[in-house]
Amino acid sequence: MMRLAALLGLSLASQALAACSRATLQEAAASYVRAQAAGKPELLNLASDASYAENDTPMAIAEGVLSQALTIDFDRSIHDKAACATFTELTAATSPHPYVIHTRMLVAPADGNGNSSSSTGTITAIESVVTDQGDWIFNATGHLHWTRQEDWGVIEPADARRDTREAIRAAADAYLDQWADPSLPVPLGTPCARLEGGIYTGQRDPAANTCRMPAFPVPIRAGNRRYVIDEELGAVDVFNGFPWLEASDPEAAMPSSNLVRVEGGLIRYIHEITVCKTPMCGR
Ligand SMILES: *[C@@H]1O[C@H](CO)[C@@H](O)[C@H](O)[C@H]1NC(C)=O
């Protein structure tokens, strides 16, 4: 009995230790921003077999936007210690070629006993949703204008607005699920504002809940969801595939990402970027 208890205790401790430290994740995300600003992926501490993809297409980093220097006017990152993952939103409005980019990265954890090895902290996967002119309501100037006015500050553990990982994820999932079934409830706060491409729903009345979505003409099932969750910032990003929007190919699940801020179980901010095949998805 004692032995079993000891084993269980050990395995729980190992689970806790297997996660990444916030400092490790912060350094990984900061190095990503530096690398993209310089167009120098070699500034990243990459695993030798690291994967790289843009808009759901695997490619060599040398072929990607990460190898092109960008003027980054604003960036925000969130850090998922349990999943050992980071998410970064880059707004490059004054770059000669403007972009808004969402990137999630996976980082190698310490081993099961919490010990670092040579691989700990290396970046094992990078995937980005890369939007520019012609993508859904793209306007990097507008994106920059609104994102820098928002408050995504730390929510302390004693703060009533602090949520669990599960609650943060559930709020974002409810928002996406409602696209398939308009009768489903979504925990939107007041105020709530959505930055969609470069358009801001909170422009006219910043104190109102302007996040409610009208029903789509067809149910939208946004699948292939990939999450990065940060309890400290009340934030989650959901990479997903968004069907129907691209008029030239409605069956295609277009690369899309929703960054959501949750406060006390209620959605405060949503940032959506979605890639199009044809200008403005042909709409
Ligand atoms: C982009 O956003 C900026 C700032 O909100 C606005 O002044 C500009 O007119 C927008 N451009 C387009 C093409 O909508």
Main traits of this protein?
single chain; 283 residues; alpha+beta; six-stranded mixed β-sheet; globular; binds 2-acetamido-2-deoxy-beta-D-glucopyranose
Helix/strand layout:
Layout: H1 2-18, H2 22-38, E1 46-54, E2 57-58, E3 74-80, E4 85-92, E5 99-107, E6 123-131, H3 140-147, H4 165-177, E7 188-196, E8 199-200, E9 223-230, E10 235-242, E11 254-263, E12 266-274
Parallel strand pairs: 1-6, 7-12
Antiparallel strand pairs: 1-2, 3-4, 4-5, 5-6, 7-8, 9-10, 10-11, 11-12
The chain binds 2-acetamido-2-deoxy-beta-D-glucopyranose.
2-acetamido-2-deoxy-beta-D-glucopyranose binds at residues 139, 141-142, 145, 198.
> What is the topology, as strand order, of the major beta sheet?
2-1-6-5-4-3
Tell me the strand percentage band. 25-35%
Query: Spans with pLDDT under 50 lasting ≥5 residues?
Result: 4-18
Please summarize the sheet with the most strands: 6 strands, mixed
* Run of helices and strands: HHEEEEEEHHEEEEEE
How many beta-strand runs?
12
Span between N and C termini? Answer: 66 Å
